[in-house]
Amino acid sequence: PSPRPEPRSRSVKEVLTRWYQRYLSEEEAVILLVMLILAFVVMLAFGEILAPVFVAVILAYLMQGVANVLRQRGLPAELSVAVSTLLFMGGFLAVLFGLAPLVWRQLVALVREAPAMIEAGRKVLVTLPEEYPVFFTQQQVNELTTAIQAEMTSVGQLIVTKGLSSIPSVLALIVYLILIPLMVFFFLKDREQLIGWFADFLPEKRPLLNQIWQELNVQFANYARGKGIEVLITGAASYAVFAVFSLNYAALLGLLVGLSVIVPYIGATLVTIPVVVVAYFQFGVTPDFYWVVGAYLLIQGLDGNVLVPLLFSEAVNLHPVAIVIAVLFFGGLWGLWGVFFAIPLATLVNAILSAWPSSDSFAVSS
Comparing 131-145, 214-228, 313-327, which segment has the lowest mean pLDDT? Predict the structure, then answer.
């Protein structure tokens, strides 16, 4: 029998043509691509400046869910928005004048106590070669102690430098505390007008864009509201547990645990360190220490295995590798703000990719 002819390798032009016809054959797909490129350029150039706007958008998504529930219960649309806005303002003022001062006082107390904790840790390190000579040598302990002292010296100098140059940041924070609630109110009140204004720049017939927008809206709204509920539940549960055991800095640590769920896996790993360190230096290796750490680990386990599946059953599930890449990428672009928004932005990217129109009905000359 005659040998089968080998398939001819495709040229770069043919590959690009096939890709274009598959993903950009629709006019709306091209428009969406241009919009995404413009949005990325704007965020890259003005991301830190526009960070309060992004915070306001996320908060508006959270409160829009409350308004939707009230509207389903029979309240008029305007009244439901007004009630959700009042609830937001009440919660905002409670955090600003209730939780924030308490957390600040505990943070100051922790900074003052840090040198004593470091000295106690150094004394523990000195005894390691005697108690565990197989694993630790005196030279290793001396090198580690020297490295810790040098690091703490640099941290102290950094705190002093930042303290002298933090006045503009404090003023910017005060401005943000005024602007963010104001923007949340207008995002809620004029939501339809703002969406309509933006839609005027798009084609009149846009079924694909409408479909993608609906999916993005559902996915991002589910994520934002679910994450907000998760922050409240884990933070409140952690604070309650820490307060029951009279753990120092309970409000500060509870807030850190609540905020840590914004960045899955990484946040939980990082926040475990201060919880364990504070518990160790307060209780030592005692039953109270094991109870506090065990209760904290139980909260983390319930959060990951019970709360998250319940809250995010309809949201986009991100692979842990995607989460790490998103934190590294957006954190490298915008620092702390990038870490804070890494998962919402990754959720948006994932939703866009899953909803992107593609066409398999094309033919290319072979």
Answer: 313-327
Please give the Cα distance from 279 to 247 (Å, whole number). Answer: 7
Q: Give yes or no for a contact between 241 and 220, defined as CB atoms under 8 angstroms apart.
A: no
pLDDT at residue number 31: 77
Give me Rg for the CA atoms of the chain: 26
Q: What's the pLDDT tens digit per position in 146-179?
A: 777 776 666 655 555 554 454 456 667 777 788 8
State whether residue 358 is helix, strand or coil. coil
* pLDDT, position 366: 40
Measured on CA atoms in the order 54, 355, 62, 298, is the torsion positive or negative? negative
237: which residues sit within 8 A by CB, 6+ positions away?
Answer: 299
Question: pTM value?
Answer: 0.72
Residues in the chain: 366
207 close to 32: Cβ distance less than 8 angstroms: no
Q: How far is CA 190 from CA 33, 78, 81, 184, in A?
A: 27, 10, 10, 10
Check: CB of residue 27 under 8 Å from CB of residue 360: no
* Dist CA 312 CA 224 (whole Å): 10
| Integer angstrom CA distances of residue 80 from 70, 86, 89, 316 | 6, 10, 14, 28
Distance, CA of 281 to CA of 273 (rounded, Å): 12
Surface-to-core class of residue 297, CB atoms within 10 Å of its CB (0-12 exposed, 13-18 middle, 19+ buried) = middle
Q: Count CB neighbours of 164 within 10 A.
A: 8
- The runs of H, that is alpha helices, within 132-166 are 138-164
Higher pLDDT, 33 or 215: 33
State the chain's mean pLDDT as an integer.
78
Cβ–Cβ < 8 Å for 220, 354: no
